[in-house]
Amino acid sequence: MRQLARIGGIQSVELTYEDLTKNPEAEVKRVLSFLGERWEPDMLELVGQLPATGFADRAGVMSRRITPSTGAYRSWSQETIDAVLTETAEFRSGLGYLGAWVSIF
User: Fold this and answer.
1) Three-class SS string for the chain?
2) Are 29 and 36 in contact (CB under 8 A)?
3) Residue 73, pLDDT score
4) CA 12 to CA 100: how far, in whole Å?
5) d(C-alpha 56, C-alpha 81), whole Å
6) pLDDT tens track of the chain, all 105 residues?
7) Which pLDDT belongs to residue 47?
8) What phi, psi does 80 have (nearest 5°)?
9) Which of 7, 46, 13 is nearest to 27 (CA)?
């Protein structure tokens, strides 16, 4: 995305899953501001509005004791990081993320 913005002058906003899970209200407000949309406090109230399936169902997530793993990569060895980057290079390149992922490690 950063490369597209630099090359084509495309406006974009970067949102990472890690930032969204750490501070959802601030991140949603930031994205809405970029889009020129108004923040409404009930935007984060998903429980009871979505079907009770999968990760959208907070009660389901809690009952299965699913815990977030954001930032877990920070404890990976260099060998593991290199292996992940090698194995995912083609996929990340196809999505335009090749350089972005290297920068988080």
Assistant:
1) CHHHHHHHCCCCCCCCHHHHHHCHHHHHHHHHHHHCCCCCHHHHCCCCCCCCCHHHCHHHHHHCCCCCCCCHHHHCCHHHHHHHHHHHHHHHHHHCCHHHHHHHC
2) no
3) 80
4) 14
5) 30
6) 566 666 667 777 888 888 887 888 899 999 999 999 999 888 877 644 555 455 555 665 556 555 666 777 888 898 998 898 888 888 878 877 766 545 455
7) 46
8) -65, -45
9) 13
The domain locations on the chain are: 1-70, 74-105
Residue entry with tokens 């495309």: 10
Q: Which two tokens stand for residue 66?
A: 């699913």
Residue type for position 11 = Q
Token pair, residue 48, equals 């009871």
